Amino acid sequence: MRYRSRTEIISQILETANGRVGITITKLMYKAFLSHDQLKGYVKVLTENDLLNYDFVTRTFKTTERGLRFLNLYNKIDQLMKEEEEKI
Question: Which of 1, 4, 25, 50 has the fewest Cβ atoms nearer than 10 Å?
């Protein structure tokens, strides 16, 4: 696997947790290709900044509206970067 920036990892976590139902920490860990310790650090930052929400009843994570806005902006910037790379 190639090197991923922190921003890429954050977008992968938010993308994975985006859905009608929440996702457990184990599934999130496997789909984002992170160890449990790594994921705990990212989840802490994302929940503190209201990008990710934890439901204590179902014990699942879900991307918030703010997280969805972040994903939208990230995807737009990523697309622009790819278009510029193609020109070069």
Answer: 1
Selection from 36, 44, 46, 37 nearest residue 12 by Cα: 46
The residues, any chain, with a CB within 8 Å of residue 58's CB and separated by 6 or more, are: 22
pLDDT, tens only, 12-70:
999 999 988 999 999 999 999 999 999 999 999 999 999 999 999 999 999 999 999 99
**Which residues lie closer than 8 Å to 42 by C-beta, 6 or more apart?**
9, 10, 13, 34
Q: Residue 77: what residue type?
A: I
pTM over 0.85: yes
- CA–CA distance, 56 with 22 (Å, rounded to integer): 11
